[in-house]
Design brief:
By secondary structure, the chain is α+β, with helices and mostly antiparallel strands. Helices cover about 20% and strands about 30% of the residues. It is built from six helices and 22 strands.
């Protein structure tokens, strides 16, 4: 046991020395010096599913501007309601782990390299976002549309011939009108969320409008298409607010070969009589504690909106299809459309080790502790687990007392027998 611990420590130290080796990056050209801001402010239409972390980069700004201010205005509101989200330093949020999904927009954003990050975006965050300066000079704008799906769904089972016909079908029309069409556009299926075990694939379909009468200021690169919640869609258009679709299906893939370990580590393993296959693969470990009976949301570090995330509770996979099965409309533990693991509410028995998979590879280990928080008027014996805890404690006490008594009786018996034997010899 001691030898294995020493071996693991040596492996981790050697691998960390390789991982943390630093190479000075080459000096890159300033992209802002070569990108001119538009003379007429337009808004780039961007649509996302609710729950993801949205990043809005400021693609242009004058070279003399060292810090940017982001402005926000709700859709179809007056210009006077535009408000600044940041100060000149752009730092409002540092600890993203303390952000509940329902909190105000001001507590869920951050500025990093002039880009605006919105954590766990929801439909209430839809609106116009403008990158500008403290003097209200506007450089670049976004028309953000956050669409919320009611639930995950499994695609219907179809025959092989039908599957071949629909393989290249990535959208379908929901509503048709002489002036416009409403359709759902699906992204391609994601990779399998885990390897070496049964997993799941996810694809997202967002709502879009096709029309030749969209506002010229709010458009995608395609001048005739905008998302359903865009301000570029005329208010007179009806039946626009169609719900997006999130589909899941089963999958299973083999794990790709891991990169070969460093030569120093291989030599040490060979010297100790181990093969390179027995080298442990370290993943980052995070610790989180939270009081019981509240909402706990776990996110996978490094996850982006276009990535798929899988979750394990210890060695047991957590599947989206099981949490959204018929009759299980309000599961207590679920994976939301933003790929977060949500406990609503969290219980003390949820404490344990959780693993997240990112793009089919295990990415992080999260050690969760859910503790009981007693209120002002609550007592320990009023907790529902108090009786069971006392019963367990009493059982251990009785067992330890019995073992101690047996050991004491054995010791006394041994001393009596030894004294009698010595007396007999005398």
């Amino acid at each position: 046991m001691l030898f294995s611990m020493i071996l693991t420590c040596l492996v981790v130290v050697l691998m960390c020395s390789v991982v943390w080796s630093f190479e000075a990056p080459e000096e890159k050209k300033d992209v802002f010096s070569s990108t001119a801001c538009p003379a007429f402010l337009t808004f780039t239409n961007a649509a996302f599913i609710a729950g993801v972390t949205v990043e809005l980069p400021c693609h242009c700004k004058p070279e003399e501007v060292q810090s940017v201010v982001w402005f926000f205005r709700k859709h179809w509101s007056s210009f006077d309601e535009t408000r600044a989200l940041t100060d000149n330093h752009g730092n409002k949020l540092l600890d993203t782990s303390q952000v509940p999904h329902s909190s105000d927009l001001r507590s869920r954003f951050s500025i990093r390299m002039f880009s605006l990050l919105i954590f766990r975006a929801g439909p209430e965050d839809s609106g116009l976002y403008i990158c500008g300066s403290a003097h209200k000079d506007f450089f670049y704008g976004y028309d953000l549309d956050i669409q919320e799906a009611p639930a995950l769904s499994s695609p219907p089972r179809v025959s092989t011939e039908s599957r071949k016909k629909k393989r290249h079908r990535s959208s379908f029309i929901v509503y048709s009108h002489p002036m416009y069409k409403v359709f759902i556009s699906f992204r391609s299926w994601s990779v399998c969320d885990r390897c070496g075990a049964p997993g799941e694939q996810v694809r997202i379909g967002l709502c879009y409008v096709y029309s030749r009468f969209l506002h010229v200021r709010y458009r995608l690169a395609n001048q005739t298409v905008a998302s359903c919640g865009s301000e570029g869609v005329p208010v007179s258009f009806s039946r626009i607010n169609q719900e997006p679709k999130v589909e899941i299906r089963s999958c299973q893939v083999t794990c790709p070969p891991e990169p070969s370990p460093p030569s120093k580590l291989t030599a040490m393993m060979a010297f100790l009589g181990y093969s390179s296959a027995s080298v442990p693969i370290p993943v980052p470990v995070f610790y989180l504690s939270h009081p019981a009976d509240g909402v706990v949301t776990l996110g996978c570090p490094g996850a982006r909106p276009n990535m798929v995330v899988g979750w394990d509770q210890g060695s047991n996979p957590i599947y989206r299809s099981e949490k959204t099965s018929p009759g299980n409309f309000y599961p207590r533990i679920k994976i939301d459309t933003g790929h977060h693991l949500v406990f609503n509410p969290a219980k003390s028995q949820d404490s344990g080790v959780y693993y997240c998979w990112l793009q089919g590879r295990r990415a992080a280990q999260i050690r969760l502790l859910v503790y009981v928080h007693l209120g002002k008027d609550q007592t320990a014996w009023a907790h529902p687990d108090f009786t069971e805890s006392m019963r367990t404690l009493f059982t251990y006490y009785v067992v330890m007392t019995v073992v101690f008594c047996l050991m004491l009786i054995g010791r006394i018996g041994y001393e009596l027998i030894r004294n009698r034997f010595e007396t007999h010899n005398d």
